[in-house]
Amino acid sequence: MIEIPNEVGDWIGQPRYEEDTEFDVERGYIHTTCSSVENGNPLFWDDKVANELTDGPIAPPTMLSVWFRPHHWAPGRKKQAQPLQIHFDLKEKLGLPEAIMTDNTMTFGEPVRPGDRLKTRQILRSVSEPKTTKLGQGRFWEIEVEYTNQRGEMVGIESYTGFGYRRGA
Amino acid sequence: MTQLSIDQIQAGDELPTLSVDVTPTTVVLGALASRDWRPMHHDKDFAVNRNGTRDIFLNTPNQAAWFERYVTDWTGATGRLGKMQFRMRDSVFPGDTMVIRGKVTNVSTDDSGCAWADLDLAMTVNDKITTSCKARVAVPSGSGDNPWKRRGSDWQPNGPGNSNAKANGS
Questions:
Q1: Which of A55, B29, B119, B124 pairs with A75 at a CA distance of 20 to 30 A?
Q2: Which of A49, A55, A79, A104 best probes binding to B when mutated, by most B CB atoms within 10 angstroms?
């Protein structure tokens, strides 16, 4: 397995890919997500309840990552954009063609509301020594994603642990 | 919908079980609802031949949505999630019956007066845990309290002694 390149070492602790999400938070996706898990929480379906409890409609907190996932295609885009780009950068730089996520921590701040435009940034926190699992040989890494709204309020922080690997190696 | 307050919750309480028969539509709808276009969540050939799994499988964001729905089915709309930690141990495939169970591990009130229930949750298939989850959910401390109204230092999703100002919305 190749050593960790200096370039990758330099990424650790450095915010990268600071960007605006591609579209405003919108209720279509909120309802589609609730529908996908049969979530009948009236906060997301009944404006009267939302106005009373949350001062207006909000998105389910666990939808955080939905808002920063890029479109599958967009005009002028030459290469498919990837969510959690650092994860894909690590696969490439470390020569590990396959990867899965093993752990995910989400901390929720201010509620996300329809019409919000979020900003995100990604921070690589760590890369492990080589490990062998039932999937193959590879490395674990931890990536943090911070989300703020258009007022600069933190709406959430996600931490992902990924395992990049080569099958049967 | 029920609206639990902290005086109705005790450590050791078990949440009602949720059972879901997973279909290809469950997986694909969940992936697309969460804007996850990766092929292992809609293309069986890719999942089998590239990922080495037996079929397409539920993606992580949709599992989070299932857990959220499970927790707030129990608390009611005044329940406000503060934090969720998952560990994915195995995958959930079409044809599986996914069962979610949960237990209260602790109840507490922080220094702002916010009442919290800590939960251990498990997504299982055939009694084998596929994803374990620890969740921290705020519920009303009494009549008139609403966790959703908390802001700044009155919202401490990381718990006492582990403050994360960045997550406080301040």
A1: B29
A2: A104
